[in-house]
Amino acid sequence: MGAPRTYEGIDNDRGDGMSPTAKIIRDAWVFGLIPETETCEGWHTHQIEALWVKVNAEWEKHGFRVGAMPPELHERYLAIQRKAVARAEASGWSGEGELANDT
Questions:
Q1: What residues form DSSP beta bridges with 6?
Q2: To 5 degrees, how large is the angle CA 44–CA 96–CA 33?
Q3: What is the pTM of this model?
Q4: Mean per-residue pLDDT for 44-54?
Q5: Which of 5, 57, 73, 87 could form a disulfide with 69 if both were Cys (CB 3.0 to 4.6 A apart)?
Q6: CA separation for the pair 16, 78 (Å, rounded)
Q7: Is residue 74 very low, low, confident or very high in pLDDT (cuts 50, 70, 90)?
Q8: Strand, helix or coil at 6?
Q9: Would you tell me how many other CB atoms lie within 10 Å of the CB of residue 8?
Q10: Which residues sit opposite 44 in a β-bridge?
Q11: Residue 12, Ramachandran bin (φ over 0: left; ψ between -120 and 50: alpha; else beta)
């Protein structure tokens, strides 16, 4: 049995910070579940899954809609997303792959 899988951290994310795991981390920052300095580097799969459960519970409070967030939380969400997109684009991410299976 090999060593448990660990996450490389949002700053080293193989998806330029746009992977599903990175999205969980950004949402956790938005909801204040972890500090924005927490990259989750070295976290095991079960830790990421536990964070996802908490993030999902927070989203449920807002009907899973950004537009249903209170203004302060909405602005925080947008600021974090803008920063992430700018960083990803600077690394060569274009977002085209996000829609590849939607046709």
A1: 44
A2: 35
A3: 0.89
A4: 98
A5: 73
A6: 18
A7: very high
A8: strand
A9: 15
A10: 6
A11: alpha
